[in-house]
Amino acid sequence: MAAQHGSAGCGKPPPDAIPTSVAVDGRTRNLIAVIPSDYRPDRPHDLVVAFHGRTNSNAEVRRYFDLERHAAEPTIFVYPESLRDAQGRNIWSDPADAPEKLRDFSFFDAILQAISEDYCIDRDRVFVVGHSLGASFANSLACARGDVIRGLAGVGGGSSRPKRCAGPVAAMVMHNPRDAQVPIAEGLRLRRELLSQDGLVTGSEPDFPQRFNCRRYGPENEENPVLWCPLGDDRTASGRFYPHQWPAGTGAAIMAFFSRLG
Length: 262
Known about the structure:
There is one protein chain. The chain is of the alpha/beta class and 262 residues long. It has a single domain (21-259), classed as Alpha/Beta hydrolase fold, catalytic domain (Rossmann fold, 3-Layer(aba) Sandwich), CATH 3.40.50.1820. Helices cover 23% and strands 23% of the residues. The chain contains five helices and twelve strands. A ten-stranded mixed beta sheet has the order 1-2-4-3-7-8-9-12-11-10, sandwiched between helices. Strands 5-6 form a two-stranded antiparallel sheet. A hairpin with a 5-residue loop joins strand 5 and strand 6 (90-91). The chain is globular, with a radius of gyration of 17 Å.
């Protein structure tokens, strides 16, 4: 029997084929779903939904996010694929969308429903991750769906969020002060919004991982802490100056943050 907060898929045999798409508003939306090889329908799993940026595909970020091998708990990962604009760029919303009604909020809803019905998910442990444009979308989603999302983690994302959030959310915000693509002012604004969303005061303490200069807002036992990490990784492994990058070790740090949340 499933745990108290297990989804409808708990106790049911999984589908014969791992899903590769969901239907959203009459349109087929593609995704990559990763189910553990030792999946058991009697054991609620964490769910991590990870969003790619403007210039990378979901297959590419699955590789460089490097989340899966660092999961401390049984976890299902989903990497959605965005639509594209007229110039062929990845987008997670339509140009005229209001911040509280971004088009692909419905995509996330459909993913959560489909995975919850087919697999055993701990509905108290649903997480979202993103980089760049994907982080901006995840930041908005964690506000609009704060009633179902337990934790957020993003690198180099902006902050154009709904005025009112559906509930508090634990967050790990990583942003390079020298990022020219998404200015640090966006990250600082997001930090202020998350502190308000979670009802936290502005005092902070050093926290793991120290190599990303992280500071924690909220006490050690805070249910919904905010980690602010003004990382200093300016150059890629090849030596190119690129402060907007996803630094080595980020996937491990994010999964460690999620695992410590009750």
